[in-house]
Amino acid sequence: MNKFDRATRKYYYDDAHLSECSARVVKIGGDYIELDETVAYPEGGGQESDHGVIVSLEGFEIRFVHVRKMYTTRVHIPDMPDIGVDGVIEHVVHDDDKGLLEKLRLGMPVVVRIDVMRRARLSLSHTASHLVYLGVSEVRPDAVAGTLGCHIRSDAARFDFAVSSRFLPDELAEIERLANAFVTRNSRIHMYAHAEYRDARYWECEGRVIPCGGTHIDSTTPIGSISVRRKSMGSGKERIACEFAQAMPEIDAFHV
Ligand SMILES: [Zn+2]
Questions:
Q1: Within a domain: 5
Q2: Residue 71 and residue 27 in contact, taking contact as beta carbons nearer than 8 Å
Q3: 153 CA → ligand 1 middle, Å
Q4: Alanyl-transfer RNA synthetases family profile domain spans which residues (predicted)?
Q5: pLDDT class of 172 with cuts at 50, 70, 90
Q6: Do 109 and 127 fall within a single domain?
Q7: pLDDT at 1 over 50
Q8: How many angstroms does the Cα of residue 60 sit away from the middle of ligand 1?
Q9: pLDDT at position 3, please?
Q10: CATH at residue 184
């Protein structure tokens, strides 16, 4: 079990469109705030974290510019990369707002609110990245076997692969075509949790399943279109990046 006696309640798994929640201050660090509950998604699995504010009932706001999951317990689940479950979520405070930390008290009630445009863009980007990955898995299964990592930003996403031969123009065109076909079909996205571990989650689209604990959108249409390009990262290493110039982030889907 967790070496800590506590774990943050993570509302982003209950409802990916919840923009804020009430919480209480559990710990005040030198540059971060831990709450008992949060809607803020931490950096993980290559996806950048949410940004947002922690609002005190006394009227002051503290901006957070990074969110991290700490003190998790590593578990091994078949057909899934080893992951950290439970743990606490730390909201890293903007440099200019650190002076406000001294106004907080343990147990103080607050509201934590995320930047919904950033979350909407990250969820869209993350979903699109999976469609590109499915395209790569069709065209270049050797590359998928050599996946080195990914980085999901709000405006773009990329994967790095260890490969013995570079991606050819025809292969890139086919990967892009396959990814965009998912968008054209307006495919539904389903997320679900592992039966035993709530933090172990799966992404599913048209029967294709990818273990992933990130945030995603519910269907593919808002992605608009996906453009794919490659970059050589030196011998034996290729980067596949995707962008979505016609993205339509769904901020209207968020609620309090
Ligand atoms: Zn994902």
A1: no
A2: no
A3: 12
A4: 1-256
A5: very high
A6: no
A7: no
A8: 34
A9: 60
A10: 3.30.980.10
